Write the C-alpha cells for this entry.
Amino acid sequence: MPITRRDALTAAASLLPGLAAAQGATPRIVMNDASRLNPTPVARHWRPVTDRAGQWHEALRRELREAAAARRPVVVGAARHSMGSQSLARDGTGITLTNPWFELDRANGIARVSAGATWSEIIGWLDPQGLSPKVMQSNADFGAAATFSVNAHGWPVPHGPFASTVRSCRIMLADGTILDCSRDSNAELFGLMAGGYGLFGVILDLDIEVVPNLMLRPYAQLLPGAEFAEAFIPQVARDPTVSMAYGRLSVARESLFDDAILTVYRAVSPQPATLPPAANHSLMTGISNTIYRQQIGSETAKRLRWVAETRLMPAIGTGLATRNTLMVEPVSNLANTARRRTDILHEYFVPPDRFRDFRQACRDIIPPAAAEFINVTLRYVGTDELSVLRYAPQPRIAAVMSFSQDISAEGEADMLLMTEALVERVIDLGGAYYLPYRLHARRDQFQRAYSRAAFFAERKRHYDPGLLFRHALWDGYLA
C-alpha cells in the first residue's frame, strides 16, 4: 500500500527519541491521557513508592520544592483517564503514586486506602473480607484519590457522588504542610478538593465507607425512551430493595433514544452462605468488545446490538452476580484498538423532570454529527451537599455517552461543535456537563454550569498562592 503523509510523520516521530539519544541529548518524556489526543511533553515523571508509615512524604516535599523553584507545574494522576489534559501539565512534573496499602475499621465500616490504590486493588482486598465500596466509579481501573478529585459517581443507589462516602482524607499542600480534612476539620478545603481536580495539593490517603458484599439478581424492563425517567426515579430513589441500577437507550441514528431498557439489582434472599470471589465477566456491559466495535459505521450493527442486549442477553443465564463482581469490570473490556479512531466520553447531569427535553436535544444534535454514537448508560446521582464544583445540586439522571471519532482535525472540529451544542442545551435545562472530558465547552458555559467557579478560583489562590498545582482545566477556565 502507498505510504501516506500521516504514516511518514508517525514513523519520523518514533525515531526522535533514538536520534536524541544518539546525539547525546536526553529524550523528552511525553505523557498522554485516555483520549490519545493530548501528547504532552513533561520535564519529569515521578513514581514514588508510597508506604503506610509516610516515609515517602519527605521525598514528596523535596519534589514539590524543586518543581516550585523551577516554576514547573505539578499534576498527580493514576490511570489518566481524563480526556482533556486535566492530568497533564506541559513541561511540568507528573506524579503517579504506586505501592497501594490499606487499613480496615470494620466496626465503623471504614477503609483507609492509599491515594494511588486502584479500585480493582481495593476490591481485591475487600472481597475476601465480605465487604464492598459503598460507591466507586463504574470501572475499576482508576485510583481512589483520582475518583475523589473528579468526584465521580457510580451506579449503586440512592447515593450521591463518591465524595459523599469519603469520611476524611489527608493532603500535602504546596508548602509541604500535611492537613487532615473532613466535614469537621478543614471543612472548606475538604469541599474544594471533592471534585477539585487535584488543584489544591497531593492527596495522601482517604477514609472511605464500605458495606457488605451481596449476591444480587437483575430485573430488566423494556419501555419507550420518552418514559424512562418516570420509571427510573421511583425505583432508584424510593425503593429500598434496589441496590444498583442503570438504563440504556437505543443509539441508531434513525431511532435514537426511541427505546430504553431499565435494569435494577436486588439482593437475593436468602443470601448464600459463601459468596464467590469477585470476577470480571463483563456483566455491566452485557456485550462483547467485538459487537460493541462493529457499531462504528454500521447502523445495522447498532440495531443488532440493541436486540442482543435487550432480548438475547436477558434470555441466557441467571444474571446473578455479587456486588463486587458488578463493579470490578475494567475499561479494557470495551477498549478501542483502532489506531486512527478514539473513544470520547461525554456526560450530562439532567434534572429528572427535564429528561424528555434532554432526549429531544440529543435527537436534534447527535444524528447530523460525523462522530459515531455507540453507547449511553443512564445512572442516578443523589444530591451533592459537599463539593464546591458540584454537578448535582439536586438529584440528577447522569447520561454517560460514548462516541467514536476520527483522529483528525476534521474529527476534532466535528466533536467540538457537537459538544458545545449539547452543553448549551443541557445548561438551558438546568443541568450540567462533566469536567473530566474534552475541554470543548466555552468559558461562559463553564461558568454558567458551575456557579461557584469564581469562589473556587479565589480559594485556589489562597491555598496555593504560587499556583504550583495546575493543568489545562485551570488554564482554560479558571486562570
Remarks:
- The first strand starts at residue 29 and ends at 31.
- Residues 1-15 have pLDDT under 50 and may be disordered.
- The two ends are 48 Å apart (CA to CA).
- DSSP finds 14 helices and 19 strands in the chain.
